[in-house]
Amino acid sequence: MNQINYLRISLIDRCNFRCVYCMPDDTELNYILKKQLLTNDELLTLIKDVFIPVGFNRFRLTGGEPLLRPGVVDLVNKIAHFPQTQDLSMTTNGFLLAPLAQDLYNAGLTRINISLDSLNPHTFNLIIGHHSSHGWEQVWCGIQSADKVGFNPLKLNVVVIPGVNDHEILNLAALTLDKNWHVRFIEFMPIGNNTLFSDRGWVSSAQLRDQIRQRWGLTESQVCGSGPADVFQIPGAKGTLGFISQMSECFCDRCNRVRLSADGWLRPCLLNESGQIDLKTALRSSQTMEQLQQQVRELLNLKSEINFKERNPGTLGTYSRTMSQIGG
Ligand SMILES: Nc1nc2c(ncn2[C@@H]2O[C@H](COP(=O)(O)OP(=O)(O)OP(=O)(O)O)[C@@H](O)[C@H]2O)c(=O)[nH]1
Ligand SMILES: C[S@@+](CC[C@H](N)C(=O)[O-])C[C@H]1O[C@@H](n2cnc3c(N)ncnc32)[C@H](O)[C@@H]1O
Ligand code: SF4
Ligand code: SF4
């Protein structure tokens, strides 16, 4: 059995963007009420006294948009300084990153993944559903700041939507030629916006690799990470290209992670809602840390049964929580 040692933590379910593939404009989301959110102290207790003793040592902060979480720098500082923490990273849309990048880095965040779906400001703003015309510029500024501060590896996430941004693949891949950046193309999943998914479908990583191979060639490569990306490189490029192929491949047999929502539910699989446990209520009802550890161990024992196996590219998922609420 795989070792499950990677916890993705959603710090908040709210977001300052409404990306078309994740949180379409017409979706009514029931945001978590403040009193239902894990407090910073509760989250730190769960990490230190429950997850670390059970064997977790890799943590990713996500959201919604994690940089909207009050006290995020302090949280980073505390999680980074647990002696057992081997990897602490964040997935962010980058909009609020520029003024925070240095503080996050100083607090102990060493690597960061930033979503960047287009190099064209107009297309970008359409994708993120942002009403400010400076969305792209502000995210680009966040990426530059992250680079300057020294986040390494610095990864850029691109969800590829046919007819929306798939014509930009070569331009996005070209970013890696002279920058030590790691661009990852993510196959669009039917969770978040099923209407768009039915309408546009998805592009396979194999097709993208063919395009890139024809232009520059492509070789297998590696970059530090805990996720499911297959990593390649354009010969001579400074950065790498990652492909996250959840529609065309099944990487569940190497799944090493579970997810904690901002209101304290532990979810064994992104694409299967079975088996979730409510750690917040258990914590608030004064169960002992040993009892909580035991609940988590039991869930991990069941995980391989829960892991999403019936991947059918034509199937639409029906989920009570969507991507922005789970954290990707
Ligand atoms: N189906 C599925 N998709 C995943 C899983 N983990 C990550 N992804 C997809 O990959 C996207 C990008 O993930 P990131 O948040 O950047 O994290 P990561 O790829 O695990 O990060 P690294 O540690 O840098 O490799 C997510 O939004 C999902 O679309 C997973 O366990 N299952
Ligand atoms: C849910 S977001 C949360 C973190 C942060 N707000 C961000 O966008 O990076 C995490 C990741 O999920 C990806 N994502 C969201 N909806 C998706 C979908 N339907 N299919 C594939 N990836 C998706 C985003 O592109 C992003 O890289
Ligand atoms: S959570 Fe991330 S992917 Fe979803 S709308 Fe917000 S920025 Fe976009
Ligand atoms: S779909 Fe579920 S089991 Fe498969 S890799 Fe993702 S989280 Fe793991």
From TrEMBL:
SUPFAM superfamilies, per the entry: Radical SAM enzymes (SSF102114)
CDD domains linked: Radical_SAM (cd01335), Twitch_MoaA (cd21117)
Keyword vocabulary terms for this entry: 4Fe-4S, Coiled coil, GTP-binding, Iron, Iron-sulfur, Lyase, Metal-binding, Molybdenum cofactor biosynthesis, Nucleotide-binding, S-adenosyl-L-methionine
Residues the entry annotates as binding [4Fe-4S] cluster 2: 252, 255, 269
Binding site for [4Fe-4S] cluster 1: 15, 19, 22
Cofactor: record remark: Binds 2 [4Fe-4S] clusters. Binds 1 [4Fe-4S] cluster coordinated with 3 cysteines and an exchangeable S-adenosyl-L-methionine and 1 [4Fe-4S] cluster coordinated with 3 cysteines and the GTP-derived substrate.
Cross-referenced Pfam families: Mob_synth_C (PF06463), Radical_SAM (PF04055)
Enzyme nomenclature, EC number: 4.1.99.22
An individual GO BP term: Mo-molybdopterin cofactor biosynthetic process
Catalytic activity annotation: GTP + AH2 + S-adenosyl-L-methionine = (8S)-3',8-cyclo-7,8-dihydroguanosine 5'-triphosphate + 5'-deoxyadenosine + L-methionine + A + H(+)
Positions with a binding annotation for S-adenosyl-L-methionine: 21, 64, 115, 189
Family: Belongs to the radical SAM superfamily. MoaA family.
HAMAP family: MoaA_B
Name of the protein in its database record: GTP 3',8-cyclase
Source organism of this protein record: Cylindrospermopsis raciborskii CS-505
